[in-house]
UniProtKB/TrEMBL annotation:
Thiamine pyrophosphate enzyme TPP-binding domain: residues covered: 36-156
A single GO molecular function term of this UniProt record: thiamine pyrophosphate binding
Protein name: Thiamine pyrophosphate enzyme TPP-binding domain-containing protein
GO biological process assignments: small molecule metabolic process
Top-level taxonomic group: Bacteria
Length: 189
């Protein structure tokens, strides 16, 4: 299985100024731990909304790749975002889904991917054509590198272990928003 923090470190090592939207929980904790930068948006208390925010950002900034780091439980909370993203089909979108088959932070309750749900198949059924599912670090690195160079939109489902992240980003929503806007070259209002 893939270690989420190790894979997140690979992601941030491959990007320059590309925005990364991280879902609540360990996705954002690992992003902060891997490399805190102004182009990172840390989602707090909005389960399922990283996919919608990342889609909007990809549509608004078609000239650069936009990366979403999401969790299986969070994506399952907003499956409609997949059909919307597939319909809009922004070529610059890379949506990474960390699938550990559980709601890790609330006690490890199983998500539907622990049973029969397959997020890669759901993405294909939603209309995505660039979909891959990986179970090793090498496969993840190859798939992510390919997605950076190839038009999408992309869904990369990474089957990960259940390791908790040690880091915690700032909790101030205003600070995160203003810093992210400045990281994108937008003056905060």
């Amino acid at each position: 299985m893939i270690n989420r923090l190790e894979a997140t470190r690979y992601v941030v090592a491959q990007v320059t100024d590309e925005p990364i939207v991280a879902s609540l929980g360990n996705a954002k904790f690992d992003l902060f731990t891997a490399k805190d930068r102004p182009q990172n948006f840390y989602m707090w208390n909005s389960m399922g909304m990283a996919s919608s925010m990342g889609l909007g950002l990809a549509m608004a900034r078609p000239q650069q790749k936009v990366i979403i780091l999401d969790g299986d439980g969070a994506l399952l909370m907003n499956l409609n975002s997949l059909t919307t993203a597939a319909s809009r089909a922004p070529e610059n979108l890379i949506h990474v889904v960390w699938d550990n088959r559980q709601f890790e932070l609330t006690g490890g309750q199983p998500t539907h991917t622990a049973y029969r749900a397959d997020l890669a198949m759901i993405a294909r059924g939603s209309g995505f054509t660039q979909v891959t599912s990986v179970e090793t670090q090498d496969a993840f690195e190859e798939a992510f590198s390919h997605a950076l160079k190839t038009p999408g939109p992309w869904i990369l489902v990474a089957h990960i272990d259940a390791q908790r992240s040690p880091g915690r980003p700032p909790k101030s929503a205003t600070y995160i928003k203003h810093r992210f806007m400045q990281g994108l070259g937008i003056e905060p209002v």
